[in-house]
Amino acid sequence: MSVIEEFRANGGRVGGPFAGGNLLLLTTTGARSGRPHTVPLGYVRAEGLLLVVASAAGAPEHPQWYRNLLAHPVVRVELGTEAFDVVAVPAEGARRERLFAAVVRQAPGYGDYQALTERRLPVVVLELSETPPAPWRPAAPAVPTLADRLLEAHTWLRAQLRHVRAEARAIEPGRPAGLGFQLRQHCLAFCQGLTHHHTGEDAAVFPALARSHPELADTLARLGEQHRAIGRIKEELTALLAEAEHADPDRLRADLDRMSADLEAHLDYEEAALLPALAAIPFPPVRPAPDGR
């Protein structure tokens, strides 16, 4: 039995070299493949934070799971019998040094790994956050209707966008070009959550509504056009984040302002137009049996 299978079968308890240690499972989305990848990792709690270190036992290259979370910040954590989504944010500067020192005090082996390599071992903060479900994990049926699900997703999008705009405004005037990991990861998590939400609507929700409510055809067409316009702004943001080390904070703020104006108008219109119809659809939707009964 693999460590992952043993962990899941025994509520987080494993034997062998990992017995008695602080162990979690981290599921990331492949940077290139887009598929889920799960790895067992040691963890440390410090300053009220849940931390993992991309040590790779002191190897010269970062482990693949770390590259994955840079591309897809929303990751899945399994800790004991609990499972939850987080946003993975590498610590920077003085904060990274302070947290790494705290890690080494609890688990000195990480200091030995650092001595084996010239690369600075990343310390990743796993930030508990109310996030939309990752595309590789089905949503939990926590709401009664599709209207409630829509409002849940919209509430997250609005809150996340307000958060990243506040972080962008907090960048000191005159600071050299470049964005920190925290802003980059939070902004990328928002962009990917937005993509997941709009893709689900375009592929499933809107076609179903078009069949059951033909009077909404013009409304759905307009919403689709808004998705494409917002998608263009999102692509500009994503391209900027890909060059985060050299990105212009003023341009980021301008792009976020455009996104906020267009997205708020879209969400308001969608709620006014679709909530009455969606309120009659249970969540998750009930699919008819194959025999039609």
TrEMBL record:
<feature type="domain" description="Hemerythrin-like">
    <location>
        <begin position="146"/>
        <end position="278"/>
    </location>
</feature>
<dbReference type="InterPro" id="IPR004378">
    <property type="entry name" value="F420H2_quin_Rdtase"/>
</dbReference>
<dbReference type="InterPro" id="IPR012349">
    <property type="entry name" value="Split_barrel_FMN-bd"/>
</dbReference>
<dbReference type="GO" id="GO:0005886">
    <property type="term" value="C:plasma membrane"/>
</dbReference>
<comment type="similarity">
    <text>Belongs to the F420H(2)-dependent quinone reductase family.</text>
</comment>
<protein>
    <submittedName>
        <fullName>Cation-binding protein</fullName>
    </submittedName>
</protein>
<dbReference type="InterPro" id="IPR012312">
    <property type="entry name" value="Hemerythrin-like"/>
</dbReference>
<dbReference type="GO" id="GO:0016491">
    <property type="term" value="F:oxidoreductase activity"/>
</dbReference>
<dbReference type="Pfam" id="PF01814">
    <property type="entry name" value="Hemerythrin"/>
</dbReference>
<dbReference type="GO" id="GO:0070967">
    <property type="term" value="F:coenzyme F420 binding"/>
</dbReference>
<dbReference type="Pfam" id="PF04075">
    <property type="entry name" value="F420H2_quin_red"/>
</dbReference>
